[in-house]
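Extended Data, panel c. Modelled sequence:
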Amino acid sequence: MASSTVQTQEDFKSRFNEIVQVSADILLAQTNPEFEPLSRETTPALDSVGVVGFVGPVIRGMFYVGMAGEGIRELRADLYEDWIGELANQLAGRVKNQLSRHGVSYDISPPITVRGERLSVTAAAQVARGYVCSVGECWIWVLLDVLQVVELKPASENEEPVNEGELLIFDT
């Protein structure tokens, strides 16, 4: 079995960013509407942002998922704000699942949704990534605070990764 890997804060942040981007790409490709990564970095004025906090022994921070576009609001109708909060919650859970395979854990707060006319995230985010669909845009930010050196343990060679959304039944 391979030994654990002790990384600098910057190494861990880089790995964390990769996990967030892959998790967000997959999550947003499976939504209705389906989103694709956006190449530009300029964020439009957002009308709603879902926020989920996370805290663990070695890391803490916040996931933000913001939406822009009246077409998305119309498509999602009465569940628009709940849907955005749930997207932030699902992203936090997907990242948590990936990190837990390497021995890093955190707890997730319940999602909240902030609504306004011209919202923006002004804090220095570790990850900022835009997505586009036929009726609007989605933006993801993650603020990450690394509290101490993070030890990423190798994933078990016998452990098969679980696809997000699959049902697991535990045998006792």
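The longest helix spans residues 9-29. This feature is highlighted in the accompanying rendering.
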